[in-house]
Amino acid sequence: MSQKRSKPAPSSSAPLILYGRHPVMAAVCNRRRKINKILCTKENFEEIRAACLRNDLNPGLANIVDKKEIDRILPREAVHQGFAAYCQELEEYTLDEICIIADEQPRCHVLILDQVTDPQNIGAIIRSCVAFNTLALILQDKNSPVETGAMAKASAGTIEHLPVCRVTNLSRAVNRLKDAGFWIIGMDGYAQNYIDSIDKSGKIAIVMGSEGKGMRRLVEEACDTTVKLPISEKVESLNVSTAAAIALYEINKG
Questions:
Q1: Which of 39, 29, 23, 32 has the alpha carbon at shortest distance from 85?
Q2: Could you give all domains of the chain from N- to C-terminal order, each with its CATH number?
């Protein structure tokens, strides 16, 4: 997959601090990630230093600090395992770039999130996207959080491997994907058909809404069809990250 892209990621006022072993080590191994400084406890220093050398990073980026110093710069509930890194947000892809990458693949799928706002949910979804070979994650820029340490932690570092695209208007983005040969499938608990009944060949875009409101009307109307997961009638719905994992597994298995 091509990693070339041009659109800057949205910025936030607070510095981006990745934390936890998997997110920090994955960031060090990602040539697209710009790292400003790494903090680590003494027992983790050699691992970080070796990773920097393997990936042509200055080992001087790594600084040994006390665990309490890392605690001080992170949210109280953050589990950092003695790893933290001040980074720049990953550059994001444009929708045209996603379509160009997809054009080279006769069978692929992307995931579109409509107003899913919890960073940890999005991080878990990113992990599932990478696990099930999703080409890209597409979000609306106004109703989704910017990249955060909590998001990267929930993704277990897989955020480094997934192209992310933010668009102004999801309905227009869906139409652009249709022009690029994608079949648009909306996830709706009230749909008539189940996800395992659809044709999974070709290019597919899965659309998932927030747990409470689901897809917005215009986004749902832009879909080619809607489907649901075959869950028990005793359960009204699943957490969006769990539902995404099941849907992506089903689409990926073909």
A1: 39
A2: 16-87 (3.30.1330.30), 95-253 (3.40.1280.10)
